[in-house]
């Protein structure tokens, strides 16, 4: 019988929750302040622009010749910053910032299944993407709705700007910055650190998964995409819990981001006639088929890891 089944001492539970809170704060500071500064410093050798010109590029990247490159550095730096401070904190306190994460792949079929589950779930989630994007708030929340809609529009403009690839090299850089880095960093923070500690502190795995998923969606600051991103985070959380392997949600997250970027690149180059950024969902029949496929794959995934 595990410690969680035996009951958790109040001191251990309190320590885990406190640790989760500290790690969350450190990751936010790293993501919003330290990381972008690191990215800005690293970008200096790659541009002839002055500090003032770089400031202008940050405020208006679409009209700056260095705008896209600078944003890539800032985004990459922010992602590195997200894990840097928590990793240093854990290294100083526990001597191992990867402790508690099972990184040994015992059955590669789980990794492959997580790829198909993620792609199938994208079809299911398209229903929630459309519903959430069209959500209206009551009149007394009009100010919040206007603010949130403004953030959403800015994020969409930025996404279109960053994914308007002028060459394969552009696409390759974006793939590393948008697909590879976040897959590891966000899973490390939200599933590896927060979900584990909330579970250790409460003994309630569903609570740990959903709280981590809500925090995961919150940090993206896109409220008209909040629900589908929260559902995606919850799916990563359950894949991690059922498999017990850290690389499973990392691969699933990478699949979600990487598949989206590949589809955008193919659409931009004229290879396919499908806009994956369109928030309009497929027909309900299609969503239903994706739901049946996803449930079937998840069932097999759970059965595979129950042995």
Automatic annotation (TrEMBL):
Pfam families: Rce1-like (PF02517). Keywords: Hydrolase, Membrane, Metalloprotease, Protease, Transmembrane, Transmembrane helix. It comes from the Bacteria. Residues 171-258 form the CAAX prenyl protease 2/Lysostaphin resistance protein A-like domain. GO terms for biological process: CAAX-box protein maturation. InterPro entries: Rce1/LyrA-like_dom. The chain crosses the membrane at residues 21-46, 69-90, 111-129, 160-184, 205-227, 247-271, 283-301. GO terms for molecular function: endopeptidase activity; metallopeptidase activity. This is CPBP family intramembrane metalloprotease. It comes from Fulvivirga lutea. The lineage of its organism: Bacteria, Pseudomonadati, Bacteroidota, Cytophagia, Cytophagales.
């Amino acid at each position: 019988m595990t410690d969680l089944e035996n009951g958790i001492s109040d001191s251990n539970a309190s320590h885990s929750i406190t640790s989760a809170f500290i790690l969350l704060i450190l990751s936010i500071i790293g993501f919003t302040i330290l990381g972008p500064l690191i990215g800005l410093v690293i970008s200096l050798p790659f541009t002839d622009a002055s500090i003032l010109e770089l400031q202008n590029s940050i405020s208006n990247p679409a009209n700056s010749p260095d705008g896209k490159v600078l944003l890539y550095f800032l985004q990459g730096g922010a992602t590195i910053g997200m894990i840097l401070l928590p990793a240093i904190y854990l290294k100083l306190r526990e001597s191992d910032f990867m402790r508690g994460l099972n990184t040994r792949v015992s059955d590669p079929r789980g990794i492959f299944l997580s790829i198909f589950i993620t792609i199938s779930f994208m079809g299911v989630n398209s229903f929630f993407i459309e519903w959430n994007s069209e959500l209206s708030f009551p009149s007394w929340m009009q100010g919040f709705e206007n603010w949130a809609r403004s953030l959403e529009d800015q994020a969409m403009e930025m996404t279109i700007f960053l994914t308007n690839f002028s060459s394969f090299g552009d696409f390759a850089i974006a793939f590393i910055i948008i697909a590879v880095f976040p897959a590891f960093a966000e899973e490390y923070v939200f599933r590896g650190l927060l979900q584990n500690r909330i579970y250790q502190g409460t003994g309630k795995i569903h609570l740990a998964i959903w709280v981590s998923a809500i925090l995961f969606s919150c940090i993206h600051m896109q409220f008209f995409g909040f629900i589908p991103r929260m559902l995606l985070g919850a799916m990563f959380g359950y894949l991690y819990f059922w498999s017990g392997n850290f690389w499973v949600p990392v691969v699933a997250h990478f699949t979600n981001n990487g598949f989206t970027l590949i589809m955008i690149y193919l659409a931009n180059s004229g290879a396919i006639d499908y806009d994956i950024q369109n928030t309009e969902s497929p027909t309900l029949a299609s969503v239903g088929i994706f739901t049946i496929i996803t449930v079937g794959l998840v069932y097999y995934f759970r059965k595979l890891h129950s042995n």
